[in-house]
User: Which sequence fits this backbone?
């Protein structure tokens, strides 16, 4: 290696500091899923794309009531699961935050309830919902419906 190409500066070129995140009242969880964070104080725009309002609803073109109900439950479960995951990241750095901890336990309880209700009405989505649901269980439950990433409009 040619040593003439190496920097001989003794001063650091740059130093970054990142302020510690403070607690702020979270978004509604459906909005949080669309925004990509539950915390409005973290939703900073740097290069903002033009806003497009989505007017579509999952499976809104189907007349099957069961399928509509399944999609609505999946949407609610997705929003709660996202909020729980985002809040977990916050609590990794703020383990003593009483607001965050209280919300964590509420969301965890709500997610387990939704998983159980979904398993009762349709099919299990996770390993946990295979034992929390009140359905007849005489075989492994994954083939009962589409995989979560396949969507329900199948």
Assistant:
């Amino acid at each position: 290696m040619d040593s003439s190409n190496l920097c001989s500066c003794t001063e650091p070129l740059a130093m970054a500091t990142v302020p510690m995140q403070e607690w702020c009242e979270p978004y509604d969880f459906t909005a949080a899923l669309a925004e990509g964070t539950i915390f409005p104080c973290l939703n900073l725009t740097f290069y903002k794309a033009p806003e497009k309002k989505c007017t579509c609803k999952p499976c809104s073109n189907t007349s099957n009531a069961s399928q509509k109900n399944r999609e609505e439950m999946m949407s609610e479960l997705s929003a709660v699961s996202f909020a729980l995951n985002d809040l977990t990241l916050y609590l990794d750095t703020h383990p003593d935050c009483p607001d965050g901890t209280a919300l964590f336990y509420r969301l965890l309880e709500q997610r387990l309830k939704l998983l159980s209700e979904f398993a009762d009405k349709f099919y299990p989505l996770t390993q946990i919902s295979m034992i929390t649901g009140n359905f007849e269980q005489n075989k492994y439950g994954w083939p009962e419906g589409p995989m979560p990433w396949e969507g329900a409009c199948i």
Q: What stands out?
A: The helical segments are 29-35, 65-93, 98-121, 127-132.
